Amino acid sequence: MQLMPPLPEPEPFPSDPLSAYHRYNRTLQLSMLDFQFIEEALRMCLIRDYALIYFRTKDVLRFNLPIKELEKDPLGRLISKFEQFSNDSALVSSLREMQPFRNQCAHRGMLLTVEQQRDVQYLAAETAMMEARRKDTQSCFNKILAESQRLEAILNDPRRRDQVERDEGSSSGSVPGAREKS
Hints:
Layout: H1 17-57, H2 67-72, H3 75-83, H4 89-108, H5 114-118, H6 120-156, H7 158-161
């Protein structure tokens, strides 16, 4: 998966109500698509986090990858799970801050009164706000994707993936509690 390219500058806002409403709808749909990409990127990151735990502890700890659970998790739960593994508190904060906007788009974005649908100034303001938020979602997506790619590189390097931290006091180099492979 590639990083999202920068968003182009928006075209001038239309002055007729029908075109303004179409622009609002298109921007709303693109905003929702951005959030779907963020949710999938979070899932990819979490799967890689869990896989890393599995590979590093498979000889000493039973660990089942919760893939089915992740498929059903909504954005808020994905953010909470991601937070457990991420050192990027600014990214986690940004994700949490954008969640109410995502919920507004998903649950109320299409519910405009007839007056709102015909009010070019209202539609222009709402569209401008969504376009600005899309820049934030793009930035978050790119950071999550970069983290996912970093984890993928670790998982694809068997020396790094299977490395288990050794006890500093252990002269034999064995891991306490580890089972011997047969």
